Amino acid sequence: MLSELAAGHSGDGAFLDAVIALAGDAEPRVSDGATRLVKMHLDEGGALSPARTSALLGACRSVVSWQAQLHLCQSVARLDLSARQAAALAPWLTPLLSHKRPFVRAWALDALCAVARKNVRFKAIALQALRDADQDAAASVRARARNIARTLDCAS
Q1: Residue 126: CB partners within 8 Å, gap ≥ 6?
Q2: Residues 6+ apart with CB under 8 A from 151
Q3: Mean pLDDT of the 12-20 span
Q4: 118 with 83: CB under 8 angstroms?
Q5: 3-state SS class at 81
Q6: Pairwise CA distance, residues 64 & 24, whole Å
């Protein structure tokens, strides 16, 4: 249903603005769906303007659903973050590195490394998080850490 909704509004800036506004909704089902639509938009090659990126980052503070947190973490690498936006995002990501759900931990690590590529102040934090993730109990987190270390420049 979300795919059909997204296809029906492809290229509609007002729709994208509304979806971003709903990303931080207190109702988890709303937040989950909205963040999934943003992720789909980015996965399909779409981009967010600096203003839309700022609005999405502002919504992050209100996101409590683990699914919405996961969608946002999976989207960070596709955002064109300024150094300032990256710095604002890092405090939101850091607690997610110890989330009870392994996929959230794994993708928070990925997002933190994307932040470190945009703002060098976070490189040491990202490198330490990579080392810590290599000892994580979940194989998915360790695998994500290995993939990041091989492919992202925050690991060099």
Answers
A1: 109, 112, 113, 115, 116, 154
A2: none
A3: 86
A4: yes
A5: coil
A6: 8
Query: Residue 112 has what pLDDT?
Result: 96
Closest to 71 (Cα-Cα) out of 104, 98, 105, 47: 104
Q: Is the pLDDT of residue 44 over 70?
A: yes
Residue in this structure with the two tokens 């102040």, named with its chain if needed: 121
Map residue 109 onto helix, strand or coil.
helix
Q: Between 102-118 and 123-133, two packed helices, what is the crossing angle to 10 degrees?
A: 150
Residue type, 125: I
Q: List pLDDT tens digits, range 88-141.
A: 999 999 999 999 999 999 999 999 999 999 998 999 999 999 999 999 999 999
Q: Which residues of 59-89 are buried (b: 16+ CB within 10 A; e: fewer)?
A: bbeebebbbbbbbbbbbbbbbebeeebbebb
Q: How many CB atoms lie within 10 A of CB 129?
A: 24
- Tokens for 58, please give them: 């502002």
**CA separation, residue 31 to residues 44, 71, 85, 119 (Å):** 20, 10, 21, 28
Q: What average pLDDT does range 79-92 have in this prediction? A: 94
